[in-house]
Amino acid sequence: xxxxxxxxxxxxxxxxxxxxxxRAAAVVLTLGLPSVASAHPPVSLVLDGRGNLYFSDLRNVRxxxxxxSIEVAVSDVHTHELWLGPDGAVYGEDVTNVxxxxxxxxxxxxxxxxxxxxxxxxxGYPDEHHDYxxxxxxxxxxxxxxxxxxxxxxxxxARALLREIPLQDTVGFLHWLTVSxxxxxxxxxxxxxxxxxxxxxxxxVVARDLVERTPEFDFVHDRHALMGxxxxxxxxxxxSVYSGQVVKCVSxxxxxxxxxxxxxxxxxxxxxxxxxxxxxxxxWSSDNEVRVRAIAADGTERFFEAS
Length: 307
Prior knowledge:
By secondary structure, the chain is mostly beta strands.
């Protein structure tokens, strides 16, 4: 059976987890709890050089073309994160469970649509291997969030470990991170946002208590309250507050403002800036549907739903 957004608990026993060396907390994050309420949505929007916007619906990776049409780019993949490589290819992961165990691979799609594996199918969840990631700086270094070890590993393009950023002194669940081209790291931990300066090995709080809740999304587990993040044109970090149906932007000085709110059954889980100004938002629904929301610099909006 392929991994699904509504499945959130591994059928592995505690003994199996110990044998595999996985902390129970890490398994609960990645495999989850059996409820739509705790669904683990995708977090990435990737824009290539031709204006194609890639996103996942957890069954396929789709592409929003410049003309507004949506197509399936990579079919039958359970993908949460995407990355645009310097070669113009889009990279993503695929996770599947086989019986009581999980397997995964890393794939890439070329600009011409050819799909190949970067890492072939292997046993375990990606967090167990922590040798590949989708958050990278301009040098190609990868920043891998180690939820089990409470740290960030920095690996070079050959996947060799360069350094480790400890997060053991922080309190709360390790959600997601984002990295600027010069290596500035922002990571959401518990309800707070932390920053790690380029080349440094310590995290400092930038903003506290970002989590809020609305009646429509009060079902969201604390682990998933804060989702995808990106940098806006002013250098602020925009954080998708999935549990509160809002995107909050945090300035370098720690000032917090609401960028935009979602309504009804929709809530933001990721986003990015638009080249012409404004933002793209990835929105997820309480019944596990996905759409892209385009917000222009003048505030006008368009919505693109995958059929």
